[in-house]
Prior knowledge:
Layout: E1 2-10, H1 11-14, E2 24-25, E3 29-34, H2 39-52, E4 59-67, H3 70-75, E5 78-83, E6 86-87, E7 98-99, E8 112-113, E9 129-132, E10 139-142, H4 143-151, E11 157-163, E12 171-179, E13 182-183, E14 191-192, E15 201-202, E16 205-210, E17 216-221, E18 224-225, E19 237-238, E20 243-245, E21 255-258, E22 275-278, H5 279-287, E23 293-301
Parallel strand pairs: 6-9, 13-21, 20-23
Antiparallel strand pairs: 1-3, 1-4, 2-3, 5-22, 5-23, 7-8, 9-10, 10-12, 11-12, 14-19, 15-18, 16-17, 21-22
Amino acid sequence: MKEYIEFRILKEYAHLLFKEDEGVDLGSVKKVIITxxxxxxxxxxxxxxxxxKHDDFFFTCFEYKRRYTEEEINNAKWFLMFRTRxxxxxxEECGTIYDESSACPICGSGAKQLSPLKLRRxxxxxxxxxxxxxxxxxxxxxxxxxxxxxxxxxxxxNFEQVxxxxxxxxxxNYYQVHPLYYVDFSxxxxxxxxxxxxxxxxxxxxxxxxxxxxxxxxxxxxxxxxKCPNGDNMGLRLLSEAYMKxxxxxxxxxxxxxxxxxxxRAGLIRPHHLFFCSNRMMRLIKExxxxxxxxxxxxxxxx
Length: 303
């Protein structure tokens, strides 16, 4: 496996580390792809830390990219499934009801969905798997995806039809995914906010803003907890490959979800479970040419 990290560097600061002809100009940012072992990697972290002291950024976002050999793919038993299509409005904005009293009071994970998933049909992208920008459990799949599961007797998930918020009781040709089995993360999985910040929370912050008329106002941002002491949420992001604890039942499944969630609770955004599929299911998804899904090798380990 070869691992790379794609950074989006603010163009006004890119010259501090990169030559003008390095990276790809995307307007206000420059896309740069490096390896974690490159000399620029730690320097990016140092420049980001310095920029944050001044409420600024050196890089705005990042993404791990992992490339596998054909042999590694053939030998892998499980894959992490990434939903690549996101849309809005969220299900909550469309009238889906949640019981917030069942959520963890620290990290916000675990609010129970009390009603069928409600979404606007014209907002769902042309894909076979997609999720709203709220993350959480708001993942939908197409009729083609459901047919693939049933035709091949794949085990590990159920489906519930999505409801239109505009026409009472009208069902859509999309289904919400309901995992039947959940597996714990191994301690070998690494979580954090960025490759340079593995902390599990953001402390309360107070910021003062200047108004055009010369006055100022102060806004207090409450503390946000990503790594829950109760073990409900693991962190803002999974930074490493996924390592999951082995259980005997896995030999009979094609799909499962992580028991713990990842992400954070902010407004409409909710922590979410990660999805995993078997090698067989991954190959069927490609054979059926289902859209909106990409894969990364996942590891099942004994602890």
